[in-house]
Amino acid sequence: MHLACVDCAARHPAEMLYACSRCGGILEVADPARLPRPIAGAGMWAADAALGVADPAMVATLGEGATPLHRVPRLAAAIGAAGDLRIKDETVNPTGSFKDRAVAAAVARARELGLPGIVCASSGNAGASAAAYAARAGLPAIIVVPARTPAEKLTQIAAYGARLVQVEGHYSKAYDVGLEIARRHGFANVTTTYLNPYGVDALKTVGHEVFDQMEGTVPDWILVPTGAGPLVKGVVQGFRERSPGRRPRLVAVQAEGCAPIARAFASGEREVRAWGPPTTFASGISDPLVGYERDGTHTLDLVIASGGLAVAVEDAAIRQAMALLARSEGILAEPTGASSVAALAVLLADGRIARDATVVCLVTGHGFKDLKVWRDMPADIRHLADPADADRLVETTLAGGTAASGATGGQPLRDAS
Ligand SMILES: *Cc1c(COP(=O)(O)O)cnc(C)c1O
Ligand SMILES: [Zn+2]
Questions:
Q1: Which residues lie below 8 Å from residue 256, measured CB to CB, with a gap of 6+?
Q2: What residues have their beta carbon closer than 5 A to ion ligand 2?
Q3: Distance 195 CA to ligand 2 centre (A)
Q4: Fold designation for 69-96+203-373
Q5: E-strand spans in 159-286?
Q6: Which pTM was predicted?
Q7: Separation of CA 226 and ligand 1 centre (Å)
Q8: Could you name the CATH architecture of 2-61+99-199?
Q9: What would the pLDDT profile of 66-89 be if each residue is shown by its tens digit?
């Protein structure tokens, strides 16, 4: 196993390195170390032993990965998809997002290298993962988050016993603090941009799983909620390994209030520039990339090479997609998690994706992570004063037509009492 620079191809030893010492480029794991055998019953470790760790005793697993790929006929009908539409449901990971895959692998490698602790800059989800896996591994953890992180995410990080540090400003400020702590104290930085090559490498398991679950059909399109883009890279790499002949086209989905990659794509630029302060409620992809714009450029390269797209969706469309996912298929997503479905609806409507295409949407984060958004959604609440009225209630329920079938109509839960 060694690390290789994606820009200048320099070779580096498989230590905890975060950038190419020659050119500053992104590092990737080449020829990853393998466990002697897969770990039965342990999520992604049961399917893929080549995750950059050689010693099974170093793997602190909570069963991350090996997530379901659902057929979603009612959702498909609602958004006008006439082909095979699937949802890769990453909400069921142990801490509620796909970040568990990256962090579990990065923490295992940190243990193998004997590092003293874990640090992670996060908009919430990676921090929850880092806190959980540090606890599982018995390592101290410092999690650095921007001041505006949703309360549920802060609660979750604190619950795992990590030291939680809030910094004023947006995500990129937290990122810089994480870098300093890793540099000065030798903590393993498991921040889930392209910084940690072992973490990014483990995201290939998403691509592997989708390929295996489709039983030989390669989807035409895969839509990926995208911040810096490691998840895009994971899907690309997974398919590169499993299906060298035929590859899916990738759609990097961003929110209109923070869309550095989609903006570059739309204007035909090949270099991604940093975004200003984010103005979207999709906290998981509120990454303006200040100071590490090259992460965005790397992701844009991958998307373009796949023949794909980078698009931005409005918060209102995301809200609609959240309601559809929950109400038509029983999948509860945080705003970021549902952005892929919101983008698909737009791309089907404007013809950029054909209605009969085979499509996979990644749903990346659980609705429990941002319940405030759900409390503001219309809900169908009735008050029953007299038990005798229950018959009438059942009748109207069977007849359908509840107020809450979409994101409009009904009343928000927070207004009901
Ligand atoms: C981090 C995150 C993303 C974005 O992932 P990147 O690999 O940074 O592009 C998408 N969805 C959720 C829920 C996330 O937490
Ligand atoms: Zn380099």
A1: 280, 312, 313, 314, 315
A2: 5, 7-8, 10, 20, 22-23, 25
A3: 13
A4: Rossmann fold (3.40.50)
A5: 163-167, 188-189, 221-225, 249-255
A6: 0.95
A7: 6
A8: 3-Layer(aba) Sandwich (3.40)
A9: 999 999 999 999 999 999 999 999
